[in-house]
Amino acid sequence: MSGLTLQGLGLTRNGRAVLSGVDLRIAPGEFVGLLGPNGAGKTTLLRAALGLLPADGRSSLADLPEAARARVAAFVAQGRHIAWPMPVDSLVALGRIAHPGAARAADRAAIDRAIVALGLQGLRHRQATELSGGEQARVLIARALAQDTPILFADEPIAGLDPAAQIEVMRLFRDLAGQGRTVLASLHDLGLAARFCSRLVLLHEGRLVADGCPSEVLTPANIAQVFGITAHLSQGPDGLVYQALDLIARPRPSRG
Ligand SMILES: Nc1ncnc2c1ncn2[C@@H]1O[C@H](COP(=O)(O)OP(=O)(O)OP(=O)(O)O)[C@@H](O)[C@H]1O
């Protein structure tokens, strides 16, 4: 199983640094939540780390040849457009393109595992384009899972899912990390991030401003500085409990 190393990752768009000097090492077995407000640079970081955007600095993934990279890292993108009307089963099977020489039985087993993990058994013969938004989101996570890679990146994977599906996906990612995989997911639900991630990294205006266990990162001061809100934090039986309280009355920074 491989981890991820980023060194000095940076990216400038239209003369503005949207990602600056990001150093990050994630070991196998970690489920890391990538947090930050809209526009902080989370998607940019994920895509640059995957080598999908040209960036300054180094990424251990971007250095790999394309075919090898597809066997090492899967990516659940933020955009969830499904263009082709194909059955769920066939769409999930596309994840196996990364393993061209694999035995048919291995392909079938990986597809079945992914379908079961996302609770899609009852939908597997339906046209993916005819599913609800949340159902389509689960299908796209299943496709990434079928890729059966040691590293999984997911960009807001639980956005738009119902509360049960959110918990199921967070549990699944925690379990994948428990099997020794490296999981990095951008998240806006700080409560679920606090509960399920082993580590959180906080991005603000393109820079990593905090990195550690949930109680080290989700402090009232960090939450106020980065998200502009007050929050109540306490220790519950399952770890840190987070509750958003109110806006801090100050102008939101310009995002131009
Ligand atoms: N193609 C682009 N051209 C110019 N600027 C861009 C482009 N893509 C993103 N940006 C800018 O880069 C910054 C970071 O965007 P990014 O999508 O990485 O943020 P994010 O943290 O993923 O936000 P969100 O939570 O809203 O998804 C934003 O200010 C955005 O406007």
From TrEMBL:
<dbReference type="Pfam" id="PF00005">
    <property type="entry name" value="ABC_tran"/>
</dbReference>
<protein>
    <submittedName>
        <fullName>ABC transporter</fullName>
    </submittedName>
</protein>
<dbReference type="InterPro" id="IPR027417">
    <property type="entry name" value="P-loop_NTPase"/>
</dbReference>
<dbReference type="InterPro" id="IPR017871">
    <property type="entry name" value="ABC_transporter-like_CS"/>
</dbReference>
<feature type="domain" description="ABC transporter">
    <location>
        <begin position="4"/>
        <end position="230"/>
    </location>
</feature>
<keyword id="KW-0547">Nucleotide-binding</keyword>
<dbReference type="InterPro" id="IPR003593">
    <property type="entry name" value="AAA+_ATPase"/>
</dbReference>
<dbReference type="InterPro" id="IPR003439">
    <property type="entry name" value="ABC_transporter-like_ATP-bd"/>
</dbReference>
<keyword id="KW-0067">ATP-binding</keyword>
<dbReference type="GO" id="GO:0016887">
    <property type="term" value="F:ATP hydrolysis activity"/>
</dbReference>
<dbReference type="GO" id="GO:0005524">
    <property type="term" value="F:ATP binding"/>
</dbReference>
